Amino acid sequence: MAGRSDLPVAIVGAGPFGLSIGAHLRSRGVPFRIFGTPMHRWRAQMPLGMFLKSEWDASSISDPAGRYTLRQFCAETRLPYGNAPLPLDTFTRYAMAFQRHLVPMVEDVLVTAVDRRPDGFELRLATGEGLRAKSVVIATGLSHAEYVPQKLAQLPHQLRSHSSAHRDLSAFKDRDVVVVGAGQSALETAALLNETQARVSLFVRGSSISWSQSPLPDQRSLWQRLRRPASPLGSGLKTWFCANAPMLFYHLPQRTRLAIVRGDKTHEMLLGPAGAWWLRERVLGRIPILLGQSLLGVTASGGKAVLHVTGPDGRSLDLAADHIIAATGFRFAAASLPFLRETLLRDLRCVEQVPILSPHFESSIPGLYFTGIASAYNFGSVMRFLCGCQYTAETICHHIGRSQVSSRLPYVITSERNPKVS
After folding, report:
1. Three-class SS of residue 401?
2. How confident is the model at residue 240 (pLDDT cuts 50, 70, 90)?
3. Is 206 exposed, middle or buried (0-12, 13-18, 19+ CB in 10 A)?
4. pLDDT at 214 over 50
5. Are the C-beta atoms of 233 and 242 separated by less than 8 Å?
6. Average pLDDT of the residues of the chain
7. Which one of 14, 58, 200, 408 is CB 3.0 to 4.6 Å from 38, fit for a cystine?
8. Whole-prediction pTM
9. Residue 302: which residues within 8 A CB-CB, separation 6 or more?
């Protein structure tokens, strides 16, 4: 970039949310730069053979014109569409085509530092380049948010890992593996391990496993549609509300929002841990499931991990395995993003380490926006899913378009490998 002149917008992250925002900014003529390896987590960290939990119609990245959808991509490439479930490979092929078509200016470079300035922000790239931006959008997705319970984290790294660390689960063939968790990641990881001939058990704290409902038939009466409205995330009034009314969710009391997203004793967790309806037959009756378990502690003995647990009957049990996979989800914490400088974090208002956002996804630091899982406490669990991209991109880009005076003249990035953005 020519010198260190101010850039209107910098996007940190090139996953579904970052690409959606880039596509919307480009359509508005707002100059920006976007940094990150396109769809890195999806292409390099999610397991081979995985299927998406989201249904086909809820798995498009947000295109401002509404034309570059997953359905359109499958039609153009003659791939089957609507045959449940949605293969990971089909989605990543679509996402990369979306990026090449609508956000070709992605720069495959890491942002190593973001700090606050009186008139905006200063960024440092892994290449050593420095730049200034008036606004910064954090779209890092699940990166740096992997959650491993403290007791499991005490085990040596060679004996335990997070589910996101495994691209090829066939490495566990003929080994004893315990998967901890009860959500889609845990259930699908266990199924894939079983299908690659690992000896796998599933450790579940709750007394049962929840499963999502199969898609509703297209032909339903008006009463059925009113009683159980369909949404991109499933059917039912609560699910419809979560998927379609993020602004109404935002205006709930903060304590209520946190309780709903966390699922504490006073409020049912919306879109909480559950397996996809099509996964049930690959798990039930095929994999030993330990329900209602309490983890007392862990030890390493003889090259194995040993879980000390009590069952629902109060009896103690030692569960030994070659490896423990914590499919225990993700928890965002602003301080876990290694590129956010301490001086910036001190000015960032948070609740439970999650930024408090305005109705426009803007944090307490003007011009700094957070998306995806980082915005779930503010706008609901829909922000953990692909279908949250559209509302996020439309809202942020509308706000940036209003608050920044953008020149309609081309904004030139002088790095040879980066095209002009206009």
Report:
1. helix
2. confident
3. exposed
4. yes
5. yes
6. 88
7. 14
8. 0.89
9. none
Question: What's phi and psi for 266, nearest 5 deg?
Answer: -95, -15
Nearest to 287 by CA among 296, 275, 298: 275
Among 35, 28, 40, 38, which Cα is nearest to 1's?
35
Separation of alpha carbons 422 and 410, rounded Å: 4
Instruction: Identify any residues that bridge with 326 across adjacent strands, giving them in sequence order.
Output: 162, 180
At residue 235, the pLDDT reads 65
Residue 268 per-residue DSSP state: P
- Asked if residues 174 and 198 have their Cβ atoms less than 8 Å apart, the reply is yes
Quick check: 39 and 92 in contact, CB under 8 A? yes
Mean pLDDT of the 87-108 span = 97
Say what the alpha-carbon torsion angle 33, 39, 44, 45 is, to the nearest 10 degrees.
Answer: 110
CB 393 within 8 A of CB 21: yes
Separation between Cα atoms, residue 141 and residue 155, nearest integer Å: 27
> Tens digits of per-residue pLDDT, 147-163?
999 999 999 999 999 99
So what's the pLDDT on residue 219? Answer: 74
3-state helix, strand, coil split of the chain in percent (to 5) is: 35, 25, 45
Rounded CA-CA distance 239/77 in Å is 33
The identity of residue 36, as a single letter, is G
Cα-trace Rg, the chain:
22
Identity of the residue numbered 384: R
> Hey, which bits of 69-150 come out as E strands?
86-87, 111-117, 120-125, 130-138
